[in-house]
Write a structure and sequence with these properties.
With 720 residues, this protein is of the alpha/beta class. Among the domains are: 171 residues, no CATH class; 283 residues, Rossmann fold, CATH 3.40.50. The chain is built from 22 helices and 22 strands. A seven-stranded parallel sheet has the order 17-16-18-19-20-22-21, sandwiched between helices. The longest helix has 31 residues.
């Protein structure tokens, strides 16, 4: 259904009509409307606003502006591309859809970079990719308040517009456009007036319209100021403008999405449903500011989508609630809604339900996005995942396919090997051989069965997309991997914990005082426990050094490595899994102190409770030698290493590998602590402080825009 709009200028009493250029059709959902506007003689406002025409006529679709309001805040305007298509849908809805006189059925209009749809009939907007209980109201703006350009309420606006057309339609607008728009109307009598329910409107000329409040206090103030010699308009009137300050065009559209980011929440979503949607909105808004400042030269766009996987799961129903005592019920309910998620995940009964819930939601969102943006896959669009807290562990297990059943099979195999080593009677040996033969036969039958299934039905991949970047924020993943038996190796490759075939780049972001976060690099190469994480640049740093050019630095560069007697050097030197490490500083305070501070912020610390449970037995045990030197290290824990350079060659007895063995890419990235930040308070708040950080937004976009930025720079160099 298309709506074609033409206007006449009426100059000199004659209607002149010219052919206008079609403004195109919508191409991102919604109805396929087209707009043809005739070439009209235009006059612009002195300040450079939207065009003005010479006679009063009905407002064009490009002069109307649609608005939306979230969280009961002020009305925000849609961009021109969205507003124009909503207005065309609105006009199509008002026209009859056939001989029976029924209104035309109009499809929802896709707006705000495709994240929302507008139902013009109900004047509401709703999200496409997630559920939201509160609908977002939308409003059609025709008359606007001077200065703020906020729209008048639609009912009043319609009455004023109808009265304006009845009284002034076809009349000539004032000739002089060089005068100030807000010139005083002192001494001018109102040529027309309209009474509204709580206000009244005076027309002093065709385009000098003022709104007055009819409240008693306003009337008294108006009377007093007029007796003092002030005019009615200048004392208490609000000037109104007909039509928005900017003309809506289809060229005012958002850039193409080239990268989507799935934002996965951790524990506590049951306690505060919808929190991940608000957190993702904060991250999206922060990223928009960074994009405008640093990446405005790129024609592409990164979109953030929340992944809310917890609310749809039934798990145990209300069994845990029924066995919870009534005393301090509030605190118990908070723990049931937050820390209980960790216990669910470690339970063999409910773990698969959590994994399947997140996996299905990721695939659903990707399929829905591609169906609404078919060019995304065609143009090689990329997908990254940002996970928080426990969400990092579940996402990792989905990507790698890790399952505790594997550990059980390894345990059984180990027991069988131990059985072979001990002495057995003839009868035991015979029964054991029969058991082996039976198991071997069972495996052959299972393989044949799987082969038949694979030939008829191809097993779909766990995820329907390749993960480009996996960003972990405040992640306890390292603790889970350590408890699963992963130990440092001899290679500096990310493949040791996450193969590059599954995910191109793994990045671990954490705040120094986050009690739930742990480092990943020492699980790959052990000596990285004494190399400081990469410091994330401040948002406003001028010309920061690229992360790939930053050299590693020791946490304690002046410390001598722990000496080992010659008799022990043979066993200690070659193996990175058994060698001691140099004394390292500790970021956080003791768990006891954090527990005292948790009274002030129980809700925040509750989300990190699960990580704190691991903090005591997650740390590697220290030798008596390192304990003694640890006292000296504690005294200088606040003194960060300032020397940046290649690490010096360590003593051979320290157990370090040769300096040539380094990580292919750095994985641990640390936020900088605030200058006046309290460690006690930040230990409580830091775990949930990642979402609105400009530093993190710039960090994420730096890696996601890396290839696009390099291609743009290369093309600029080629042009030069």
């Amino acid at each position: 259904s298309g709506a074609s709009l033409r206007y006449s200028t009426g100059t000199g009493g004659e209607g002149s009509e010219g052919e206008g250029a079609g403004l195109g059709s919508s191409d991102s959902g919604g109805s396929g409307f087209s707009l043809a506007a005739t070439a009209l003689p235009e006059r612009r406002r002195p300040g450079g606003g939207r065009p003005r025409y010479e006679v009063v006529r009905e407002l064009g679709a490009e002069e109307v502006r649609w608005f939306y309001r979230e969280d009961r805040k002020t009305w925000k305007p849609f961009i021109g591309y969205d507003s124009l298509r909503i207005e065309l849908a609105f006009r199509a809805l008002g026209s009859s859809g056939g001989g029976d006189g029924e209104p035309a059925v109009v499809e929802p209009v896709c707006v705000r970079s495709g994240l929302y749809e507008v139902d013009v009939a109900s004047a509401e907007s709703y999200p496409v990719y997630w559920n939201q209980t509160e609908k977002i109201p939308v409003m059609r703006g025709q008359w606007f308040i001077d200065g703020t350009w906020q729209p008048l309420e639609e009912e009043e606006s319609n009455l004023i517009e109808q009265e304006h057309l009845n009284r002034f339609k076809g009349q000539q607008l004032q000739e002089s456009f060089d005068m100030e728009v807000s010139k005083p109307v002192d001494g001018k009598e109102a040529i027309h007036s309209l009474k509204l329910s709580r206000n009244h409107v005076d027309w002093h000329s065709v385009d000098e319209v003022y709104l007055y409040s009819d409240a008693t206090t306003s009337k008294i103030a108006r009377t007093v100021t007029q007796k003092l010699g002030f005019s009615k308009a200048s004392s208490s009137g609000t000037r109104l403008h007909r039509g928005y300050v900017e003309e809506a065009t289809l060229e005012d559209k958002p850039p193409q999405t080239s990268h989507i980011v799935f934002v996965v929440h951790g524990i506590g979503q049951k306690m505060d449903q919808g929190r991940i949607i608000k957190n993702t909105a904060m991250m999206r808004d922060t990223a928009r500011k960074v994009e405008e400042k640093y990446f405005s030269n790129l024609a592409t766009h990164v979109e953030f989508l929340p992944v809310e996987w917890r609310s749809k799961l039934t798990l145990d129903g209300d069994t845990v609630d029924s066995i919870t005592p009534d005393k301090v019920r509030g605190l118990r309910d908070m723990l049931n809604s937050s820390a209980m998620d960790i216990m669910y995940y470690t339970s063999p009964l409910y773990r698969d339900e959590l994994v399947k819930g997140l996996q299905q939601e990721l695939n659903r969102l990707y399929t829905l996005f591609c169906s609404r943006n078919p060019e995304f896959e065609e143009k090689g669009g990329k997908v990254s995942i940002v996970s928080h807290s426990l969400g990092c562990v579940i996402t990792y297990d989905i990507m790698t396919g890790w399952n505790p059943v594997r550990l059980y099979e390894q345990l059984l195999q180990k027991e069988e090997e131990e059985l072979e080593d001990r002495w057995m009677s003839y009868e035991e040996q015979r029964l054991l051989e029969e058991l082996y033969i039976t198991k071997q036969r069972l495996r052959e039958i299972e393989e044949r069965l799987h082969g038949l299934k694979a030939s008829t039905i191809a097993k779909p991949p766990v995820l329907k997309f390749k993960v480009e970047n996996f960003f972990c924020m405040g992640s306890p993943l390292a603790v889970f991997l350590a408890l699963r038996g992963i130990r440092p190796g001899n290679s500096g490759s990310q493949d040791h914990i996450l193969p590059r075939t599954i995910c191109n780049r793994l990045l671990n972001i954490f705040h120094p005082t986050d009690p739930v976060a742990y480092r990943l690099e020492p699980l790959i190469l052990k000596h990285y426990s004494n190399i400081s994480p990469v410091q994330i640049h401040w948002y406003n740093t001028a010309n920061p050094l690229p992360y790939e050019h930053m050299k590693p630095s020791f946490l304690n560069p002046t410390k001598e490595p722990t000496s080992v007697p010659d008799s022990e050097s043979a066993s200690a030197a070659p193996s990175p899994t058994t060698s001691p490490v140099m004394v390292r500083r500790h970021y956080g305070e003791s768990i006891t102190n954090i527990g005292k501070a948790s009274i002030l912020g129980a809700a925040s610390i509750g989300k990190g409770l699960g990580g704190m449970l691991f903090s005591r037995f997650g740390r590697s045990s220290t030798t008596p030698q390192t304990m003694e030197t640890g006292k000296e290290g504690a005294e200088g824990e606040d003194k960060k290493a300032t020397t940046v350079g290649t690490p010096p060659l360590p003593h051979s007895s320290s157990g370090f590998l040769e300096p040539t063995v380094e990580l292919e890419h750095r994985i641990d990235f640390e936020l900088r602590e605030g200058l006046v930040e309290s460690r006690y308070w930040s230990a409580v708040t830091s775990h949930t402080a990642y979402w609105s950080s400009l530093d993190i937004a710039l960090f994420l976009l730096t890696f996601m825009y890396k290839q696009d930025q390099e291609e743009t720079d290369k093309s600029n160099l080629d042009t030069i």
